[in-house]
Structure formats: structure tokens, C-alpha cells
Amino acid sequence: PEPRDGDHPQDTAPASGRRPGKVTVSVAATSAPEGGGRVRRLSCSVALAVAGAMAAVTIGSVFVFDLLPDRGGGQDDADSSSGSDSPPAATASSAPSAGAVPAAYLGTWEGQGVALDGGLPLGTFRVTVEQATVGAELGKLRQTDQIGGVCVDVLTLKQVTQKELVATSVGAKTNHSGCNPAKTTVHLKPVGDDLQYRSESEESGRPRARMSRVG
Fold it and tell me: Do 169 and 131 have their domain in common?
């Protein structure tokens, strides 16, 4: 004879030994009555499938919610960015551009030139200074000696400092053969109301002149 339904031990998962964070499914054989008083047991695999599907739905729901973006964080970021300080507006500067020639140098200057520490008179020096930037033509030096000979040097702005202008001087192509065509460095420096000219040309005896404004 078949054993009664109550005589069959049910398969149960042990209550002890569960690991935290794990989904535990208790599996038991389920029975249903059949004709003739017999009891038909439902397959354990069916119960497992149902329990597994429920566990998958639960775990999947948690996973989906974890992936959703944090709506509040985006709003906070927007509020933070909108409240940030805007960069200050640029203000116009009244300072002259870099390399510009100060107004005190501009104009025409004239005086007597000498060389060899004043031992050799060189005639009249006439310097014209125009507005220029570094690398551009600054003006011209016109030297007229005691017998009327004229030599012209072209001045190119090399540097502007707080104390002086530094320029490169080279003889003009139209000069006569008695003029020095070599390139040299010259300095223009304010001295009171005058302008001092000083050349580094050793070949010409380091010419210099103190000139007054004439135009």
C-alpha cells in the first residue's frame, strides 16, 4: 500500500547557515488529489521555476532602480552652475601699447655733435623721432659737417625702456662714400628739456650730441 501523504517528509531548506544578502528559496514537493483517492505530487522543478522567476523579478527591480539617474543631483548641478560668478567684464586700458614711443621723444631735435670724448667736432646733428613700434622705422639722423657734407642714418626701434629708446642705426643707401655705412646701436635719452644722442660706433669715435627741440 502507498504511504499516506502525511508520512512523506517534506524537503525543506535548513533555516540555519544562510548567508546575508542571498535569496533563499525553500523547495517542497506539492501534492494534488487524483481520482480514486490517490495523491499526485507536483514536480519540484515547477515549484523551483516559479520561485526562481519571483526572485529574478525582485532582484531585477532593484538593479533597474540603481541604474536610474539621480534627478535631484542634476538639479543641484544646474543650480550650482547658474549661481556661479560670471567673469568680470573687460575694461578699456588707457596705457599705451607695448613698444610705443612716449610723446616726450617725438619731434625734431638739433644740436652739435662730437666724437672722441669731445675732442673731434662733427658738425650739426638733427634727429627726427616718429611714433613707431619695435622693429619699425623710428626716424632719421642727419649729420652736416663743417664743410657742408651730409650723412643720413636710418633709425629702427629696437627697445623702449623707462629711461631711453634703443635703436639700430644704419647708413642710408643714398649717402656719399665718406659716410660710415656700418650698422650700430644708438641711444636716445631725455636730459631735462633736451634729448641726448649717443652712438656705440667705435669706428666713428662714439659720437654723441645734446639736442634741443626745434620741431
Answer: yes
Does 60 share its domain with 125?
A: no
Number of domains in the chain: 2
Contacts of residue 161, Cβ cutoff 8 Å, sequence gap at least 6:
none
- Is residue 53 in some structural domain? yes
10 Å Cβ neighbour count for 207?
A: 22
Read off the pLDDT of each residue in 37-41 and give the average, rounded to a whole number: 48
End-to-end CA distance of the chain: 139
Give the domain extent around 206: 103-213
Burial environment of residue 190 by CB neighbours within 10 A (0 to 12, 13 to 18, 19 or more): middle
171 near 151, Cβ under 8 Å?
yes
pLDDT tens-place string over residues 55-76: 444 444 444 444 445 555 545 5
Q: How far is CA 191 from the centre of its chain?
A: 42
Q: Are 131 and 30 within one domain?
A: no
